[in-house]
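User: Can you recover a sequence for this backbone? Please restate the input before giving your answer.

Assistant: Of course. Working from this structure:
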């Protein structure tokens, strides 16, 4: 690496004095397990992000997906339509619920599930659709809900990367039977680890609450067989602080993205991300496209010559993972396969300085231009 530069990370959790003070407060209280901090976090998340929907905190986003599907009645014999161009947790949660993932292609502008392709994949066993608001850009909720209504399907949202995003002015997390938000360290806000499940009905929320806590809401009154997927009060305390900072961080991400668009939008050899006029993009990732044959060279040069880390989300589509290929026999997803070799995410997180942003633009312009 060029030693004149300090490395710019592709993602960076922001943990400050307020988070540390919140953790200390909980530690001093002596109550560490799921308790009043979790309840307060659920209520605040519900009010701020999902229009008051019942919201349940769990120990990870994947747990949120899994328990949400189970609480919604998904199980053996059901098919759930999912994208392949996403993290494996989406399909994993379907399999863990006992159902079968059916992989469908994305549309290339926003990297989200293509509603027309979803309609073509429906069979008599299809119970629902689990689309992903990828990179912070919403899927086409109106079109997806229209397909779901036509074929009498249920929509389950993966909003892991989309805290605060909207479609047609409505917040993500309010379109489906449930929606999962991840609180992993690299997300737009974090609880160190954790997830939130926003539910359409109180009945589904109660099902998730039972499943997260060994099947009980009252101690030793186990109603069903459940899991241990609780969030601790320590994690919730961090999440509450982060939630209060989310709006400002989102605005910074959007300003950073706008700077990139101004400076890189016309650069030959690179395509900057598009945003639908119907959407509010919260830029969990700023994902560009480059020539697939050049991507590895570009990433290495940015790292070694300019001290800029980049990410690839996702280099192997889910339908090509050894763990999931048995569900993808004969599947052909050309847009997914093309995106997997072309995408590259530039740092967009709110801790970037003006000098960082300018260096990233100079580096990308130099490195991509060298291959043109």
């Amino acid at each position: 690496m060029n030693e004149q530069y300090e490395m710019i990370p592709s993602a960076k959790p922001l943990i400050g004095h307020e988070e540390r003070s919140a953790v200390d407060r909980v530690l001093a209280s002596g109550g560490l397990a799921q308790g009043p901090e979790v309840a307060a976090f659920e209520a605040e998340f519900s009010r701020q992000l999902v229009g008051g929907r019942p919201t349940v905190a769990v120990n990870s986003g994947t747990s949120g997906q899994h328990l949400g599907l189970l609480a919604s009645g998904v199980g053996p014999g059901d098919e759930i339509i999912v994208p392949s161009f996403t993290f494996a947790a989406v399909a994993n949660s379907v399999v863990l619920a006992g159902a079968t993932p059916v992989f469908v292609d994305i549309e290339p502008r926003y990297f989200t599930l293509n509603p027309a392709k979803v309609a073509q994949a429906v069979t008599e066993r299809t119970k629902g659709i689990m689309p992903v608001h990828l990179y912070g850009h919403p899927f086409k909720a109106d079109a997806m809900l229209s397909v779901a209504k036509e074929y009498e399907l249920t929509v389950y949202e993966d909003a892991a990367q989309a805290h605060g995003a909207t479609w047609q002015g409505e917040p993500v997390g309010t379109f489906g039977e449930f929606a999962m938000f991840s609180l992993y360290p690299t997300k737009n806000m974090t609880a160190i680890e954790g997830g939130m499940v926003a539910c359409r009905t109180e009945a589904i929320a109660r099902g998730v609450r039972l499943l997260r806590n060994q099947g009980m809401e009252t101690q030793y009154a186990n109603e069903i067989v459940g899991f241990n997927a609780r969030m601790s009060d320590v994690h919730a305390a961090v999440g509450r602080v982060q939630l209060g900072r989310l709006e400002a961080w989102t605005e910074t991400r959007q300003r950073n993205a706008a700077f990139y668009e101004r400076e890189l939008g016309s650069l030959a050899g690179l395509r900057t991300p598009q945003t639908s006029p119907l959407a509010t993009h919260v830029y969990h990732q700023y994902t560009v496209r480059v020539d697939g044959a050049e991507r590895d060279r570009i990433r290495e040069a940015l790292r070694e010559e300019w001290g800029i880390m980049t990410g690839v989300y996702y280099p192997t589509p889910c339908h090509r993972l050894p763990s999931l290929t048995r569900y993808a026999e004969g599947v052909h997803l050309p847009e997914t396969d093309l995106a997997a070799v072309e995408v590259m995410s530039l740092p967009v997180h709110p801790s970037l300085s003006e000098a960082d942003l300018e260096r990233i633009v100079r580096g990308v312009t130099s490195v991509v231009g060298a291959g043109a």
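That completes the design. The two ends are 23 Å apart (CA to CA).
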